[in-house]
């Protein structure tokens, strides 16, 4: 079995090593595919486990439902009265929706919404896998007689009907301690007194728990989400997620209704403040008007004055108008002062409460809305960050900037009012100067008359504004309206079956492939010839496939003889053929066979190689030179009482230790009894003389030595041999074993080392993902050998690994 391109010339091993070049290796994608295909059942197993996990997750995880609704925010309220209509404000819808979302999430709104629900008792049905909340269904009525408002037991109680008159009750965490009661009997448990009035349905275990209003606030807030329905619109989108779809719809509708009520209350509260302020002013003005009227009447009676002249009356009317305008401006200054106090408060929401003229300025409403949005954002940030954190500091800076703008606007309004008051004061001073020309009695009368008319005009003005404010308060409509109410949605958003199974499938595939890669990554062993070729430049003269059938521990059979038509026998013949290339100048060859550690099959290879050489009528002798732990004599049925150790120590002659095996047609020298100095015996001149004598009588002298990785016994034999074969066993030898031949060559100046890969199983999992290209380098291309991996199922060999899908082929 010699490669045709090497049939014309024979090389010594020295020449081959000198001509050796680094082999070229390229990635083989088919091999990568075979790596994963070889352990498809690992991937299938991990996928199956992941899918089972997904099924269990879906089975045991309670579903989560979501329902949605929408609110429309109104831009302004209609204003009734003579003062005209409040100007429309152009809001930034995004900021307004964000600001109102904090109002909707406020504890007051959520708590009022919970009040509208039947929250005091929650009922559950206990199942084999999970417990289901029964809201809004009430399987039996529980009447609470007495309950501590704060300290009451919120444990889960389990109840089950015993008969038509009795039932059992226990704490769900300790169901073994049960108590039996009659229907309607008072039960004192957990700082509560209650009774079950209705009959409990049989054949089921029900559970219930008592709740406070606060227990549902967190549940409602946790599932509430608010956002814009669409950009640049004043429609707010709300959604509620919960494990009970009916509860999600009910609480969301309740929250929206309470928010609308809350908004109306807040708007009317502002109008009520205006009415209250006017009432306070009217009370004072009514008192002053009464006093001024009485004083004027008494003065006229005492001084017998009936009326003033026409010119004086005009002056009095003008003076009264100026005084009334001044009073109105002072009232407006009071509203400005109250607004300024609210802005200076760093926590409160700003409201334009006392406003008798509508908006205090055209741009003030937009600034106040922006400030309220920033204040709400700051409260939200403070729930997540500390006051010294950067996000909070940024909002604080924005609040400071907006407040500065509002203060500038208020200061401008105050300056305008004060300037107008100064102008009116100057006009009043001019009128008073004209009055100084009339008699003193008339001057006093004019002052009393003016005071009386001013009080009457202010009273009339305030009464008119009060009526207007009350009409505006009555005309206030909610600032939001429900566009779409919430309805129960029975489509669970979580867990999602398709997502769970697809995720499990991906995780299973990733785990399976990851397991394959992990096993390869952690693998320290050699499995194929490409690995050996990548680790060493020492030539491989043969690959021996793993024998598929049973091999006895003592290796009593030379498989190359007992199975001559097997793939295994063909491998051994390939090694035998390649031996002709090694030390070809010698007619008789001493071949030393070793390995790194015990158990790599060097004795097994030695027996089969010797048997194949004997088949071509070669004179072969096999020496068991492992004097410490030899098992070779078991294959020949020798008792090993005398052997090589006896011969080297002078206790026996050569004729006494040689055994001729008729089955294998080879001669054999066992190792003999274990000596105290095995390494020294192999270093003696007697060993060298023995090899020379046997070389004269035999064509092949095969020496089975001790492992070179454990002891140094084999070194003198390796240095005396014509050919040294280093056995590497697939799946047993580690990567370091491939470096030993080169190390021996360097340390002892050897050039006759070659490698045999034993027990090659063609396991694709551990095969390298590259292929050696012998046409681009010397390497192992000198020797012809095959792993016959592509001929499985061809029907040519007796020990083929028949694939399951080839059942139809005849053997």
TrEMBL record:
<dbReference type="InterPro" id="IPR027417">
    <property type="entry name" value="P-loop_NTPase"/>
</dbReference>
<dbReference type="Pfam" id="PF02706">
    <property type="entry name" value="Wzz"/>
</dbReference>
<comment type="similarity">
    <text>Belongs to the CpsD/CapB family.</text>
</comment>
<keyword id="KW-0829">Tyrosine-protein kinase</keyword>
<protein>
    <recommendedName>
        <fullName>non-specific protein-tyrosine kinase</fullName>
        <ecNumber>2.7.10.2</ecNumber>
    </recommendedName>
</protein>
<dbReference type="Pfam" id="PF13614">
    <property type="entry name" value="AAA_31"/>
</dbReference>
<keyword id="KW-1003">Cell membrane</keyword>
<dbReference type="InterPro" id="IPR005702">
    <property type="entry name" value="Wzc-like_C"/>
</dbReference>
<feature type="transmembrane region" description="Helical">
    <location>
        <begin position="40"/>
        <end position="60"/>
    </location>
</feature>
<dbReference type="InterPro" id="IPR025669">
    <property type="entry name" value="AAA_dom"/>
</dbReference>
<keyword id="KW-0418">Kinase</keyword>
<keyword id="KW-0472">Membrane</keyword>
<keyword id="KW-0808">Transferase</keyword>
<keyword id="KW-0067">ATP-binding</keyword>
<feature type="domain" description="Polysaccharide chain length determinant N-terminal">
    <location>
        <begin position="26"/>
        <end position="116"/>
    </location>
</feature>
<keyword id="KW-1133">Transmembrane helix</keyword>
<dbReference type="GO" id="GO:0004715">
    <property type="term" value="F:non-membrane spanning protein tyrosine kinase activity"/>
</dbReference>
<dbReference type="GO" id="GO:0042802">
    <property type="term" value="F:identical protein binding"/>
</dbReference>
<keyword id="KW-0997">Cell inner membrane</keyword>
<keyword id="KW-0547">Nucleotide-binding</keyword>
<dbReference type="InterPro" id="IPR050445">
    <property type="entry name" value="Bact_polysacc_biosynth/exp"/>
</dbReference>
<keyword id="KW-0812">Transmembrane</keyword>
<dbReference type="GO" id="GO:0005524">
    <property type="term" value="F:ATP binding"/>
</dbReference>
<dbReference type="GO" id="GO:0005886">
    <property type="term" value="C:plasma membrane"/>
</dbReference>
<dbReference type="InterPro" id="IPR003856">
    <property type="entry name" value="LPS_length_determ_N"/>
</dbReference>
<feature type="domain" description="AAA">
    <location>
        <begin position="589"/>
        <end position="711"/>
    </location>
</feature>
<comment type="similarity">
    <text>Belongs to the etk/wzc family.</text>
</comment>
